[in-house]
Design brief:
Strand 4 and strand 5 form a beta hairpin. The model has no long low-confidence stretch (mean pLDDT 85). It is built from eight helices and eight strands, in the order H-H-H-H-E-E-E-H-E-E-H-E-E-H-E-H. The two termini are 48 Å apart. 39% of the residues lie in helices and 21% in strands.
């Protein structure tokens, strides 16, 4: 096959906009493409095979580079109520917020991936994924969600205006109280993940730290579902 029509078809198929981007997608040098076009001779079977092999290697490398991209790690939560006062959000990003924080929210609003909430000691509490919606939206939903496993023993004290009574006068019994991550989490990390890997990376986090996290569901690796 002649080099020129083959390269033109590959450029259309790979949606490249320049010779340099086509060369990168094929895993060859721009000079090699130039030489093929200049000669416009038929490519040998060995040249075609080598191009296919290098193209596959280039695709794998690009996939690896995109798989995990850290957005932010161990960022301190500054919880605030939403405008309607119906829920909490992980950061205050209103007019009084700084440029750094607004930039973080903007990136989270545009990214999909996985996230982790930590307690005040930096110990992981909960790991989740944001695949169908943004990290910002999913993280805030998780932040407000009640879960049966999020129960600790607490004593209820009056919050109305009344006289204080010591424990010897009024014994208040600790009772199991269901909490939200908004009550427990102090830091978070977020990672932008290649869409096809989100499920498996969430499963790896949950399964790898199953006895430490508050996740109630034991996630399954996406490519192994139904094989158990």
């Amino acid at each position: 096959m002649k080099a020129e029509p083959l390269l033109a078809a590959l450029a259309r198929k790979l949606k490249t906009s320049s010779q340099a981007s086509l060369a990168a997608a094929l895993g060859v040098s721009a000079q090699t493409l130039h030489n093929w076009r200049a000669r416009n001779s038929s490519l040998t079977p060995a040249q075609l095979a080598n191009a296919i092999h290098k193209s596959n290697s280039a695709a794998v490398k690009q996939s690896q580079l995109r798989t995990i991209q850290p957005i932010v790690e161990f960022y301190k939560i500054d919880a605030c109520e939403t405008k309607q006062g119906a829920a909490w959000q992980i950061l205050e990003t209103g007019n009084g917020s700084n440029t750094y924080r607004k930039g973080l929210r903007s990136v989270l609003e545009q990214a999909n991936g996985v996230y982790i909430f930590y307690d005040s000691r930096g110990k992981a509490l909960y790991a989740g994924k944001a695949k169908e919606q943004s990290l910002w939206k999913e993280m805030n939903l998780a932040f407000n969600r009640d879960r049966e496993v999020q129960k600790i023993s607490l004593t209820r004290h009056p919050d109305r205006n009344q006289e204080f009574r010591t424990g010897s006068e009024k014994l208040r019994q600790p009772r199991k109280t269901q909490l939200q991550l908004a009550d427990l989490a102090a830091y978070f990390s977020a990672y932008q993940i290649d869409h096809g890997m989100i499920d498996d990376l969430e499963a790896l986090l949950v399964r790898g730290f199953a006895n430490d996290l508050l996740n109630a569901k034991m996630e399954t690796f996406a490519h192994h579902k139904g094989r158990a």
